[in-house]
Amino acid sequence: MEAAAIVLAAGAGTRMKSKKPKVAHGVLGKPLVRWVVDAAHAAGVTQVATVVGHAREQVIPLIEGDTQVVVQEVQNGTAGAVLACADAFAGFDGSLSVLTGDCPLIKPETIARLAQVRDENNAAVVVLTMKLDDPTGYGRIIRDADGQVERIVEQKDATPEEAAVNECNSGFYCFDARALFDALAQVSNNNAQGEFYLTDVLAICRAAGRPVLALPTDDPSECLGVNSRAQLAEATKYAQRRINDAHLAAGVTMTDPDQVWIGPDVVIEQDVELLPQTFLMGSTSVGEDSVIGPNSRLTDTVVGCGCTIGPNSYLENAKIGDDTNVNSSQVYNSTVGYDTHIGPFAYIRPGSTIGSHIRVGDFVEIKNSTIADGTKISHLTYVGDSDVGQNCNFGCGTVTVNYDRAKKYRTTIGDNAF
Ligand code: UD1
Ligand code: CA
User: What is the pLDDT of residue 77?
Assistant: First the structure.
């Protein structure tokens, strides 16, 4: 059966106390809403729509390209957000997941499982639930005498008995698309917050005689909603542990996994060693036998095999020990992409490609330059907008001057220069 998803990301997130919309805040370098959209794609859904509203000019650039963007002009509640997607899914008759955009740790397999349970039972809705010692802030799952889900009550509308229930609404659901949009037409805003609650759809579907089911999760961390800075830090801790455990299991050494931060899209090969206070962010990848850190930060950087980066080095959008080096194919045809040493205290800025068997030493800054194999730039040097050949040797304190206060010029240095 066809499966699609809606990601809710229109709210302001006032509890964050921020100029930035909540879903644009990052966990391990990736915005909250991106975690959820990526999880939906990984779960194999065919169509994803993301609902934006508050400060949408900051949210749209994060998601456009691989989701349909739907605008909720007035943020009048989660039901209003889903209703804004009515046109986008007008012809759609299948499993439609609704995913809350502020819960970054949802697993793709859980999204897929919700859809599977809905299909198997031809349910109107399956809601993912979790039991919490402290359910403060979450909607409570109210069951009838037979243990069937009757409705969801929001914290602010709950009686003391209802508030004492510790089974909570995760904010992740899979609906029968037609049942969902039919029910949404009946949701009112007659409640403590004066909002249209998506959660009211469950009682409406039940009254219509359709199965309403709950799927309990055994890992409440995947439903952690980020409403405050404290919860943002908590989500980061969980994400760090989940990601680092996977890399440890795959053969990466970390002296202290609590002191290593790795983004969710980073690729690391076997026998890499990560020293404390290392940050690997964005689309970074690290080849076999390389050593990174301590105190180093790599963003969107490709590191080849057997390279050493750090201590105290900062690299952004660079290629290190990389086989795309312009000259590398001539000499190191079969052995490209390894044995390059960067640091300590090196700063490699965007647009730099640094080949194999290279030494970039202390207090060296490289920007938008290619450095061919075997070159040594050992200390106190700036190389900007330059193309440097093979086996060159930079003396201490060298600068490639390239700017005449109007125009920047490229510097070209041939092979074997001193
Ligand atoms: C919601 C649920 C609650 C659940 C919790 C799980 C409702 C009424 N309540 O509460 O039962 O336990 O999530 O995390 O659904 N949003 C919009 N448009 C709006 C309002 C919100 O797109 O008009 C988006 C927000 O950006 C956010 C998500 O919907 O990503 C949830 O909104 P939020 O205000 O955080 O709801 P909660 O109070 O956490
Ligand atoms: Ca929330």
Answer: 97
CA of 158 to the centre of ligand 2 (A): 17
**108: closest CA among 202, 197, 222, 184?**
222
Per-residue pLDDT tens for 237-281?
999 999 999 999 999 999 999 999 999 999 999 999 999 999 999
Q: Is the per-residue pLDDT at 127 higher than 70? A: yes
379 catalytic, yes or no? yes
**Which pLDDT does position 1 carry in this prediction?**
62
Q: Ligand 2 mean position to 31 CA, how many Å?
A: 15
- Which pLDDT does position 331 carry in this prediction? 36
pLDDT at 412 over 80: yes
Q: What is the CA radius of gyration of the chain?
A: 26
Instruction: Give one DSSP letter per residue of 271-339, joined into a string.
Output: T-EE-SSEEEETT-EE-TT-EE-SSEEEES-EE-BT-EE-SS-EEESEEES-TT-TTHHHH-TTS-SB-
**Centroid of chain to Cα 418:** 45
| Cα-based torsion angle of the residue sequence 163, 167, 170, 176 in order, rounded to the nearest 10 degrees | -110
Counting ligand 1 atoms within 8 A of each CB, the residue from 100, 169, 188 with the most, and so the one to mutate, is 100
Query: Residue 326 pLDDT > 50, yes or no?
Result: no
According to DSSP, the β-strands at 30-31 and 26-27 are: antiparallel
> What would the pLDDT profile of 236-245 be if each residue is shown by its tens digit?
999 999 999 9
Contact 220, 130 (CB under 8 A): yes
- Separation of CA 33 and ligand 1 centre (Å): 13
Closest residue by Cα to residue 155 from 99, 199, 102: 199
Please write the tens of the pLDDT for every residue from 25-38.
999 999 999 999 99
| Residue 102 contacts residue 23 (beta carbons within 8 Å) | yes
Which residue has the least CA distance to atom 16 on ligand 1? 11
Distant-in-sequence, close-in-space partners of 64: CB < 8 Å, separation ≥ 6: none
Q: What is the pLDDT of residue 46?
A: 92
Q: Report the alpha-carbon distance of residue 78 to residue 10 in Å, rounded.
A: 9
Q: Is 281 exposed, middle or buried (0-12, 13-18, 19+ CB in 10 A)?
A: buried
Residue 129 Cβ inside 6 Å of ligand 1? The answer reads: no
